[in-house]
Amino acid sequence: MEPTNQKFLERVVSQKALQMGSSFPCQICVVGFLCGVCLTSLFLAVLTSVGTFGFTGISFSSLSMGNSPLNSSSEIINAITSSDYQSKVKETARWVDLKGREPESDDDERVSLLTEAWGALLAVREPEESEFSKRFGLSKSSLPNTPHLENCKLSAQVNKRLDTRSGSGRFPPWTTWKGSLNMYPATETDENLRSFKDQPVSDGAYPPWIVGSDEENYPLTRKVQSDIWKHQHPVNCHDPNIKFIVADWEKLPGFGIGAQLAGMAGLLAIAINEKRVLVTGYFNRADHDGCKGINCNNLLLVENFLGTGRTVLTITAMLYFALWIIASRGSWSCYFFLETSQECRDRAFELITNKEAWEKGTIKGKDSYKSKEIWTAKVPRVWGDPWSYLQPTTDINGSLIAVHHKMDRRWWRAQAVRYLMRFQTEYTCGLLNVARHAAFGKEAAKMVLASIDRDWPKVITNQPKSEIEEFVWSNHRPWVPRPLLSMHVRMGDKACEMKVVKFEEYMELAHRIQMHFPHLKNVWLSTEMQEVIDKTRSYPHWNFYYTNVTRQVGNVSMATYEASLGRKTSTNYPLVNFLMAVESDFFIGALGSTWCFLIDGMRNTGGKVMAGYLSVNKDRFW
């Protein structure tokens, strides 16, 4: 049966094209558009006689998308929204020195000065040179390099090049120059180098977001990631043979980020099986002040839709559309690069206003599939069954798990989540910078000061940055104290889904690792329970690092706990913990937790297979 105009309209307005822009002209466009809607509503009304129709989060709730120059190395990092950096950084994370030792040298004052000076430049409103000089008694250019912070702006620029086809549809330069070397000036002037860079990428090329060899990742990871990227980035998105799935991220109450990722992994599987390009829509967890902006392209889309004359809209529908425009700031692109090109997104959102495209199946939405089809989506068989030869590196109760009932799902979700999180945005990079500085900044300052003139800052030697520093060494990951063990302790209401164990059992597993790697003493701890944090005092020979947010006291639901933190904090700090776990040398968690399940998948597609995984329980579906 042909759908009614009203049903079609509801379907259209439910698809939220949400990539955000924050330009002033865009805001003017929004105001103008809304004024137009109001005037039109009033005019139609006259013609048709239509009637009018608990807790406070601390840590990352203060983060925003601001960028600020760092120092003489020209590093630029995202920052926290605060005029007083010191108070916020202390609220963000804490290095717990359980030994409680007193300062041992006269260098402590220099360490504090350098740590605070670095931190001041993390603020969204970077202090002016005069203000900085007055506050710290030195210039910005006199600050040494920051080993624990990433140049977020440069990383985003490099990654954009590696995630975008050229104007002629050529593949990104995956196999030529790594990271910043792709921007090395000599490659633009030397004909031989430029010719080499322009050569097509071979079938054997693998994407730059994969670390390590095939043996250090899940089977076929490099090929699968390359194929997914090609699938999601067709050369011509306007090819009439290209079909789409446009779907919002799951937003039912009680669904955590892990469940949202698992659901989107199912939709990506459906898209590959049906040869469709997946386009994500509204991501409710990005609908907060840190992810600001309105996409002017969405306004043009709506204006074109209203101007077609093919669909008669009621006043209510027009206002609904206007409200949709205002609310469309929540997008995955706040945290990670989008799943497809902007060209394909524009084409997909153009098609959602086309009734014929829905009828022909050129475009589908989430409501085109049953819930079970999404959550238990058939794993793509394009690559055979590589999950049948997963290496047994997961330890449960002292034994390696070689075979279980959901090996295919475990392999696929790892691939899907790795693709969706392949490149971080400047905002996410900035969250990690703030977290690392709050946790490791003091240690980093001690290392740096031990390698420069002892009379700093009285004696300052500024040296120009060499090319090897700018184009080669800049590609190294930020420093963290290693080896680093990440531990995710999940308790609370999770007891209704899996077996939960006490913190002491997690520490028993940590001791097992330490027996084999005796130099291990650093733990990045993530947990929602305050009692877990309190128990760390019983382990004075370990260094625990953790974000300092309000945690649960007693047993409340995760939904209630997240609501108490607020949307920004309840999204930002888990993602920081997630990414820190992915980068850590070892990981201890609970496979019965979807969050731990996905962390394991990201590690196994990030060169960490041979690090193993110690779990306090098994997945409840195995």
Automatic annotation (TrEMBL):
One of its GO terms (molecular function) is alpha-(1->6)-fucosyltransferase activity. The keyword Secreted does not apply. PANTHER family: ALPHA- 1,6 -FUCOSYLTRANSFERASE, ALPHA-(1,6)-FUCOSYLTRANSFERASE. Signal peptide: none annotated. The chain crosses the membrane at residues 30-55. GO terms for biological process: protein N-linked glycosylation. Keywords: Membrane, Transmembrane, Transmembrane helix. This is Alpha-(1,6)-fucosyltransferase. It comes from the Eukaryota.
